[in-house]
Amino acid sequence: MEVHIELAAEELFKVGPLSVTNSMFMMFVVMAIILIVFWWVGRNVKMVPGRFQAAVEMLVELLSGLTEGSGGKAFGRKVFPLVSGLFIFILFANYTGLLPGVGTIGIERTVGGDEHASTAVIAAGTADGGQALYSTAATEEEGAHEVLVPILRPPTADLNMTLAMAIVSFTAIQYYGIKSHGVGGRIKHMANPPFLFPIEVIGEFSRIISLSARLFGNVFAGEALLGVMYAITAKIGFLVIPVLVPVVFLFLELMFGTIQALVFAMLTLVYIAIAAAHDHGDDSHEEHAEATGLAPTASEYPRAVGD
Question: Does 67 share its domain with 157?
Answer without folding.
Answer: yes
